[in-house]
Amino acid sequence: MVGESVTTSFVVCLLITVLLFHHVYANVEGDALHSLRANLEDPNSVLQSWDPTLVNPCTWFHVTCNNDNSVIRVDLGNAALSGTLVPQLGLLKNLQYLELYSNNLSGPIPSDLGNLTNLVSLDLYLNGFSGPIPDTLGKLSKLRFLRLNNNSLDGPIPMSLTNITSLQVLDLSNNRLTGPVPDSGSFSLFTPISFANNLALCGPVTGRPCPGSPPFSPPPPFVQPPPIATPDCTSVLQNLKKILKLIWDSLKDFL
Ligand SMILES: *[C@@H]1O[C@H](CO)[C@@H](O)[C@H](O)[C@H]1NC(C)=O
Ligand SMILES: *[C@@H]1O[C@H](CO)[C@@H](O)[C@H](O)[C@H]1NC(C)=O
Ligand SMILES: *[C@@H]1O[C@H](CO)[C@@H](O)[C@H](O)[C@H]1NC(C)=O
Ligand SMILES: *[C@@H]1O[C@H](CO)[C@@H](O)[C@H](O)[C@H]1NC(C)=O
């Protein structure tokens, strides 16, 4: 009897532990998104369906999951949101699309976004983000679209971004970035449009040499071209005479 009840309570305990663990595990991503919600002003209530008591965030509006109920998209462009991002976004390990463009978001871009190694598109353009572009974004080896334009980002462009070989679209224009624009790796593709209207970028693609570096492709030193010999009249006439004589002689032989 006693043994049986010990076994029963052990099984019940085990079950509770498993359920609890499963519950906690299943909600890592929901909790991460809910911390984002808690940090934002949402005047249009676009995050109203973000209920943290649900098993996972897959039924929330503006969130898309894969077949394993893991978040692959967050689509919140043009949603009138303000506030700052949270580092917990770095926990969405299968996230491919983070679309937060055209809002009123401010503060820094969390360096934890560099943990989102499955990210294909990071669209933070047309917001009020400030501070540097995190060096960690260079770890996003699957990234194809990186649009950070029209913010107040400052500091240098991290060299680490040239490591992202999949990068197809880069827009860093209309910020307050300074220093050299890398031109190696993936950056060999990008034109001045990607970097336009910043505080003080320099390097070949900007048309502005970096301080202390030699000007790019210096023009060859100017060499006075040698004067072209203008034939004088006498020599022309003499040559003409010779030619006419040659023609006359051959005509005479012929006749
Ligand atoms: C992201 O990765 C860094 C370095 O590995 C780690 O310190 C940080 O806690 C991670 N962030 C998140 C949100 O997991
Ligand atoms: C944008 O956010 C700032 C605070 O970061 C706030 O003062 C301002 O009212 C917001 N503007 C709009 C249009 O939501
Ligand atoms: C981005 O910023 C530039 C310069 O302030 C501005 O001319 C342009 O209209 C902005 N882009 C959009 C889509 O608002
Ligand atoms: C580029 O990636 C390689 C390999 O991961 C790393 O060793 C190197 O430091 C990276 N370069 C930059 C500029 O981050």
TrEMBL record:
<dbReference type="InterPro" id="IPR055414">
    <property type="entry name" value="LRR_R13L4/SHOC2-like"/>
</dbReference>
<dbReference type="Pfam" id="PF23598">
    <property type="entry name" value="LRR_14"/>
</dbReference>
<dbReference type="InterPro" id="IPR013210">
    <property type="entry name" value="LRR_N_plant-typ"/>
</dbReference>
<protein>
    <recommendedName>
        <fullName>Leucine-rich repeat-containing N-terminal plant-type domain-containing protein</fullName>
    </recommendedName>
</protein>
<dbReference type="InterPro" id="IPR032675">
    <property type="entry name" value="LRR_dom_sf"/>
</dbReference>
<feature type="domain" description="Disease resistance R13L4/SHOC-2-like LRR">
    <location>
        <begin position="81"/>
        <end position="174"/>
    </location>
</feature>
<feature type="signal peptide">
    <location>
        <begin position="1"/>
        <end position="26"/>
    </location>
</feature>
<keyword id="KW-0732">Signal</keyword>
<keyword id="KW-0433">Leucine-rich repeat</keyword>
<dbReference type="Pfam" id="PF08263">
    <property type="entry name" value="LRRNT_2"/>
</dbReference>
<keyword id="KW-0677">Repeat</keyword>
<feature type="domain" description="Leucine-rich repeat-containing N-terminal plant-type">
    <location>
        <begin position="27"/>
        <end position="66"/>
    </location>
</feature>
